[in-house]
Write a structure and sequence with these properties.
Blueprint (H helix, E strand, L loop, with lengths): L1 H16 L25 E3 L3 E2 L6 H21 L7 H10 L14 H7 L5 H16 L17 H10 L4 E14 L11 E5 L6 E5 L24 E13 L5 E11 L10 H25 L5 H5 L3
C-alpha cells in the first residue's frame, strides 16, 4: 500500500511541476565591448532590390523585411543612429523612388480554403498557380518587387541623405533566396527509418523516407525502389550590400556573401523558415563584420576569420 502511495505522490509531483509554460526569448542586439564606431553618425537603409524571383508580393515583402531587420540590428550594434524604417519607405514613396503595391488576401481567400482540402498534388499545384496569378494581377514587372529596382544618381543619394541628416546610404540586392536539396549526401543528415523486409531466409536491410515507411509491404517485387533515403533541405541566401557616402554618393564599401544552410543531422530543425533565418543572419553578419573591419578597422570575430561556409 505504501508503494502505491509513494508512486501516486511522485506522479502528482511530476504533473504539478509540469504546469506552466515554456518561454524562449532572445535579444537580437547583444551588448558589445567593441568601440562604437558609429557614434554621432546616421545611416539610412533603403529597401533591397530582389532578384530572387519571389513567389508573390507577401513573400517578397517578408524576405526584404527580414534582411533589413538584420542589417538594422548590426548598425545599432556598431552605434549608428537610424531613422524609423517606415519613415524611410514613406519618403521614398512620396518622392516616387519606389512604387507601393498592396496585397489583398481577400482575392485568394477561397482558393486558399480549397488548398486545405484533400485534393491531389496536381490539383493543389493548379490552385497554387491561380493564387500566384491573382496576387500578381494588376502589377507591372517592376511593381512586383517591394524593393529599389532601379538606379539612383548621386544627386538623389545626396537628397535622401540631406532629408534624414545621414552620413551613409545603405543599398543592396537579394541575389538568391532559394531552397534546394543538400548535395553533400551525408547519411547522418537524412531523415530515414531503418527497416527489415522479408522472411527468415530473405531479409532486406535498407533505409526509407518516413512518408514511405507505412507502404513498404506493397514493394514485394520492386525492392530496389524502397532503398531510398530522405531528402535534406538546404536554404541558399546570397546578398550584396553597398554603403554610399551620403554627401557625395561615392561607394565607400561593398561586398557579397553566399551562405548555404542545411540541418546538421536528422535531429535538427528541418523547417524552411528556420533554415532561411539562419542563412540570412549569417550572410548579414559576415557582410557587416567585413564593413566594420574594412572601414573602421574593427577586428573580425575569430569564428568569422576561420569558418568557411
Amino acid at each position: 500500500m505504501k508503494y502505491w502511495r509513494h508512486l501516486l505522490l511522485c506522479a502528482l509531483t511530476v504533473v504539478l511541476c509540469s504546469c506552466g509554460t515554456t518561454v524562449k526569448e532572445s535579444l537580437k542586439v547583444q551588448p558589445t565591448s567593441k568601440k562604437l564606431v558609429g557614434n554621432d553618425q546616421t545611416v539610412v537603409i533603403l529597401p533591397f532590390a530582389d532578384y530572387s524571383y519571389a513567389d508573390n508580393l507577401e513573400s517578397a515583402y517578408r524576405r526584404n523585411l527580414f534582411v533589413n531587420e538584420n542589417i538594422i540590428d548590426h548598425f545599432v550594434r556598431l552605434g549608428f543612429h537610424l531613422p524609423v524604417q517606415e519613415d524611410v519607405f514613406l519618403y521614398l514613396a512620396d518622392q516616387q523612388i519606389i512604387n507601393v503595391a498592396s496585397y489583398n488576401p481577400e482575392k485568394t481567400k477561397t482558393l486558399e480554403y480549397e488548398m486545405s482540402k484533400d485534393w491531389s498534388p496536381a490539383m493543389k499545384q493548379t490552385l497554387q498557380n491561380y493564387i500566384d496569378y491573382a496576387q500578381r494581377t494588376g502589377l507591372g514587372a517592376d511593381e512586383g518587387n517591394d524593393a529599389l529596382s532601379h538606379g539612383l544618381n548621386a544627386q538623389e543619394i545626396v537628397k535622401i541623405g540631406r532629408h534624414f541628416s545621414a552620413d551613409y546610404i545603405v543599398r543592396g540586392r537579394i541575389v538568391q533566396y532559394n531552397d534546394r536539396l543538400d548535395p553533400s549526401g551525408a547519411i547522418w543528415k537524412k531523415g530515414v527509418i531503418p527497416f527489415f523486409l522479408g522472411g527468415s531466409k530473405n531479409i532486406l536491410l535498407g533505409q526509407a523516407i518516413p512518408g514511405q515507411y507505412d507502404t513498404l509491404g506493397a514493394y514485394d517485387t520492386d525492392r530496389e525502389s524502397i532503398l531510398s533515403i530522405g531528402d535534406v533541405p538546404q536554404a541558399v541566401v546570397q546578398l550584396r550590400i553597398w554603403v554610399q557616402d551620403a554627401y557625395t554618393g561615392n561607394v565607400v564599401w561593398t561586398n557579397r556573401a553566399n551562405v548555404q544552410v542545411s540541418p546538421q543531422s536528422f535531429f535538427a530543425d528541418y523547417q524552411h523558415d528556420a533554415l532561411f533565418e539562419t542563412a540570412t543572419e549569417q550572410a548579414v553578419t559576415t557582410l557587416m563584420n567585413d564593413f566594420a573591419y574594412t572601414v573602421y578597422k574593427v577586428p573580425l570575430p575569430i569564428e568569422n576569420k576561420t569558418s568557411s561556409r
